[in-house]
Amino acid sequence: MQSHYLDGMDTVMVAPMIRGQAGATNTQVVVPIAFGGETYLLDVALMASIEGRNLRKSVGSVLDREFDIRRALDRLFPGF
Question: Among positive and negative, which fits the CA dihedral 67, 71, 72, 76?
């Protein structure tokens, strides 16, 4: 979730990708993601800051869904 411009920080903002349709509480802040042949729900309302050292190696990118993720963030924070 965090900009690559902040790669030097000790912490990283992350959001869970929940497999399938279960767990979505508010579709305005949930982005459906097709990744690795499966469907996930990226729930930006569940974002959290974690220490970068706890992350594993990157397995891919969801940059192609950037517009939808930004829209969900706009719904979550300023509400528009």
Answer: positive
